[in-house]
Specification:
With about 425 residues, the chain is of the alpha/beta class. It has helices at about 30-40, 70-80, 85-100, 115-125, 140, 155, 160-170, 180-190, 210, 240-250, 270-280, 300-305, 325-330, 340-350, 360-375, 375-390, 395-410; strands at about 15-20, 45-50, 55-60, 65-70, 105-110, 130-135, 175-180, 200, 225-230, 260-265, 285-290, 305-310, 335-340, 355. Strands 3-4-2-1-5-6-7-8 form an eight-stranded mixed sheet, with helices on both faces. Strands 11-10-9-12-13-14 form a six-stranded parallel sheet, with helices on both faces. Helix 1 (about 30-40) packs across helix 17, helix 10 crosses helix 15 and helix 13 packs across helix 16. The radius of gyration is 22 Å and the shape is globular.
């Protein structure tokens, strides 16, 4: 089984300023894009926030990290009212202008749709291109955020306004980075005046070397006795976690060895709902919830589980791309069961590495679990197929080359 190609750095004078309205270490996608572009020879400067006591300037594996100090609660307030009072945009315009003054920068790479305004404003003054990196279909995502749709928050947040702003913000960009071909086609179909050639694909692919360097250890999941199902990530209704719990209710009466392992923080607005769900008499002895682990521990937990799940609801938001967890599962040779979101289906069909169930259908999910529960050979085959596909294609080296080539072409023009 061949590994991913080795990156050979090539000297370049091109400098990319990445703008992130979060802490740099808080987003694995930003981290992976920045490090792989640096490996391909670009000079990367990160301009991000600091909610704690991190240094305002830091060198990290050849990347310059420039931090802007702000209280997290204040940041959340400013962002929450940005569609009513654009103080958050003014905050970023001021700090980016101040930080970039005197620097030689060839392009600005802004993460998330809403950062288009300050990034374009600064790019215009520097007369350089601006790339907009869409981590999700934000106008659709914000519809599912409970905080944004509750009174009085929604009166200030105006979540419906993002759909009206989307085309304007996308047209500000010289290049748009998206998670999948499916999302690229969606944008091109919805806004034909946006050239398909200006839309670049960079999925949430893993840094294989980084993941595989972590030493695995024995967990307390007892895989010899239990048949463990793993879900890793934020826990909320829209991510399909309660569908998994309902499927477990259908299974445990006959298969008491099946355990559902949930690793991740619970949405703040759903804590009571989640506690009630996992304490129901049917599943209270069959659900294991671990609120947080370090990423270095993830391989150990994946190894001690038999099937890995990505049960997100099928909607316009989740049809934008595949979550990090899917490729992380595949890296460690685990069969997948995923909901029928288009990008997930595409990966499963391409790699033949799992099964697809109908979103929000607990009975269908339970049937798919039993299909793998009763067929160990199929599990092993699908797990091996998934790992092969990650090594061959879905990794930072492969898509990093694509991203680097797109940048070289843009800057060459």
């Amino acid at each position: 089984m061949k590994s991913s190609p080795q990156v050979k750095s090539k000297p370049t004078t091109a400098t990319i300023a990445m703008v992130v309205d979060n802490e740099f270490y808080g987003d694995i996608r930003v981290h992976n894009e920045a490090t792989v572009l640096a490996q391909y020879g670009f000079n990367i400067k990160i301009f991000c926030l600091s909610f704690g006591k991190q240094p305002l300037f830091q060198k990290y594996i050849g990347i310059e990290v420039h931090r802007i100090q702000i209280n997290r609660k204040l940041k959340n307030i400013l962002f929450g009212i940005v569609n009513t009072i654009p103080l958050y945009y003014w905050f970023w315009k001021y700090h980016l202008k101040k930080q970039l003054q005197g620097m030689c920068v060839d392009a600005i790479h802004a993460h998330d749709l809403y950062m288009a305004i300050p990034a374009r404003w600064v790019a215009n003054r520097l007369r350089i291109p601006m790339i907009l990196d869409l981590h999700e279909n934000y106008p659709e995502a914000v519809k599912s955020y409970r905080w944004a749709n509750k009174t009085p928050y929604k009166l200030l947040a105006k979540p419906a306004r993002w759909a009206k702003l989307e085309e304007r913000y996308l047209q500000m960009a010289d290049g748009i980075v998206v998670l999948s071909e499916n999302f690229a086609d969606h944008i091109n179909s919805k806004y034909p005046n946006i050239s398909r050639d200006s839309i670049w694909i960079y999925p949430n692919v893993p840094d294989i070397d980084e993941l595989q360097k972590y030493k695995t250890k024995v967990t307390d999941l007892n895989p010899e006795k239990n048949f463990n199902l793993l879900y890793f990530g934020g826990i909320s209704e829209r991510r399909g976690v309660y569908t998994c719990i309902k499927a477990l209710e259908l299974l445990v009466a006959k298969h008491s060895d099946i355990k559902l392992v949930l690793i991740g923080p619970v949405d703040g607005h759903e804590k009571n709902m989640f506690a009630k769900a996992i304490q129901s008499p049917q599943v209270r002895n069959s659900v294991i919830h671990i609120p947080w682990i370090d990423i270095s521990e993830l391989p150990s937990y994946i190894n001690d589980c038999h099937i890995c799940l990505s049960p997100i609801f099928k909607n316009a938001q989740h049809d934008s791309g595949v979550a990090n967890k899917v490729f992380q599962y595949m890296t460690f040779s685990k069969p997948l069961i995923v909901s029928n979101c288009a990008p997930q289906i595409e990966v499963i069909d391409e790699a033949n590495c799992g099964l697809v169930f109908e979103s929000e259908n607990a009975h269908d999910l339970a049937q798919k679990i039993i299909e793998l529960y009763t067929n160990g050979d199929l599990c092993n085959k699908m797990g091996a197929n998934g790992k092969r596909m990650v090594l061959d294609k879905y990794n930072t080296s492969h898509f990093g080359q694509v991203l680097a080539d797109n940048y070289k072409e843009l800057l060459g023009r």
